Amino acid sequence: MDRFEALRLLGSVSFGRVVFTQRALPAIRPVNHIVDGEDIVIRTHEGAALVSYAQDAGDPGVVVAYEADAIDPQTHLGWSVVVTGYARMVTDPEDLARYQAALRPWVDRTMDFTVRIHPEEITAVHLVPYDE
Amino acid sequence: MDRFEALRLLGSVSFGRVVFTQRALPAIRPVNHIVDGEDIVIRTHEGAALVSYAQDAGDPGVVVAYEADAIDPQTHLGWSVVVTGYARMVTDPEDLARYQAALRPWVDRTMDFTVRIHPEEITAVHLVPYDE
């Protein structure tokens, strides 16, 4: 599966899981996403952990992983796409307005941060039947 | 939601996503699981990254996160449970036989490692409707 196909699959679903490091421990949270070009855009209240080191203009951001999948609960067939890349806060007012309109809030909390993840690496697996 | 209820939810689905650190980067892979008492047991071919530091008897293991959820793709309602804890390779022959019978292979690769995750922390969220 190529990069284009993997991003197309990612864009075909509306949520996934962002993976980051919080107080030196692995952390994961389900969030909504949209795919904008090659970037994944999410809104989250976990912004502090995600982007606290990514707010200076010269800072490339924090490395995170983002996973989305569509897996049949019975057959376990489907696909999983994992993106690894730099997460940065979105600060441009026009981008913010567009993303916030597209990403409706989900969990009943203030969604403080809009974060853009630029993929450095994309891996995708098709989960296919396996004969033991 | 208490610990017992969170583990019950986790046990009500058969797969989730293990989150770990691989070459200093956040990594995530979908895997099958079973809940055995308070522990989550998975089979994976990523064992090298997960447990390479957890093979000595005196070693507590590697800290990983494990997430499972049941989220409606349309409404986005459902739940997500995240476990953080130590991952250790299962080496006891009886345990191995039992787990390998219960966890059927999934992805078409050799599943080399059976790993037990003992929860240190369990967090659960119910994803409920949100009025903007």
Return the CATH topology of chain A.
Pnp Oxidase, Chain A
**What is the tally of helical segments of chain A?**
3
Strand order of the largest sheet of chain A: 1-2-3-6-5-4
How many independent structural domains of chain A?
A: 1
Protein name (chains A, B): Pyridoxamine 5'-phosphate oxidase family protein
Describe the 3D structure.
- The structure is a homodimer of 132-residue chains.
- Chain A has 132 residues and is of the alpha+beta class.
- Chain A has one domain: Pnp Oxidase, Chain A (Roll), CATH 2.30.110.
- Chain A is built from three helices and six strands, in the order αβββαββαβ.
- In chain A, strands 1-2-3-6-5-4 form a six-stranded antiparallel beta barrel.
- The two termini of chain A are 24 Å apart.
- Chains A and B meet through β1, β2, β4 and β5 of A and β1, β2, β4 and β5 of B.
Sequence-ordered SSE layout with sheet pairings:
Two copies of one chain form a homodimer.
Chain A: H1 3-11, E1 15-22, E2 25-36, E3 39-44, H2 47-51, E4 62-71, E5 78-89, H3 93-102, E6 113-127
Please give a handful of descriptors for the protein shown.
homodimer; 132 residues; alpha+beta; Pnp Oxidase, Chain A; six-stranded antiparallel beta barrel; 3 helices; 6 strands
Give a brief description.
Chains A, B: This is Pyridoxamine 5'-phosphate oxidase family protein. Two copies of one chain form a homodimer. Chain A is globular and about 45 Å long.
